[in-house]
Amino acid sequence: MIRELLLLSLSTVLINNFILTQLLGIEPLINSANNVKQAAKLGLAVIFIMVLVSSLTWVVNSVLLIPFRLEYLKTFVFIVIIVSLVQFTDWILQKFKVSLGVQLPALIANSAILGLALINVLQFSEFGGNFIQAIVNAIAAGSGFFLVVVLFAGIKERLDLKNIPRCFGGVPIALVSTALIAIAFLGFIM
Fold it and tell me: Which of 11, 13, 176, 178 is the most exposed place for a label (fewest CB within 10 A)?
């Protein structure tokens, strides 16, 4: 069991990375902070939200949606759960005056969080997986997001020091950099 969980987490972080292979969560990557510290805070926030959302959506799907044959409401219910959890987490952080340096409500629009919830429910609820596998997959997906966002922020910091042609600056160089990172991660498959 531990071996399977380790393989699942390594596969999710390196081979099936949400950003690089499935293009989920690409918008926060392109618009992320230019420094590594802020990118790390964003990555940690995404890991936390992914674990919360994944656990709650797995339970709601297993206890409410499947037994009452309401699977067709899955996407709508999951979006409501994501919005509620992100807003609740933001409220708790503001109440205790904890600043992450990132806007948590921006995570509502992160497609990686909804994608993870849907993938976890499909793989680990409807096809015989369990809750532990769904949580490990959430931690690994968040860690993969964290890894790519921090790498990308480091690349953006270095690119800011270089003289890049105007037509290639901004989003075009960001997309080229993302493609090169994805090609580098393809080496883990071989």
Answer: 176
Answer for the pair 39, 152: CB distance below 8 angstroms, yes or no: yes
Q: Which residue reads 């292979």 in tokens?
A: 21
Give CA separation, 33 vs 27, 45, 95, 149, 189, in Å.
12, 14, 25, 9, 29
User: In this structure, what are the phi and psi dihedrals at residue 25, rounded to the nearest 5 degrees?
Assistant: 80, 25
Cβ neighbors of 132 (< 8 A, separation 6 or more) are 5
Q: CA 138 to CA 62: how far, in whole Å?
A: 17
pTM for the model: 0.88
In percent, the amount of the chain with pLDDT more than 90 equals 41
Cα radius of gyration rounded to whole Å, the chain: 17
Alpha helix ranges (H) inside 122-163: 131-160
Judge whether 132 and 26 are in contact, CB under 8 Å: no
Rounded CA-CA distance 106/185 in Å is: 27
- Is the separation of the CB atoms in 152 and 181 below 8 Å? yes
* Model confidence band, residue 101 (pLDDT cutoffs 50, 70, 90): low
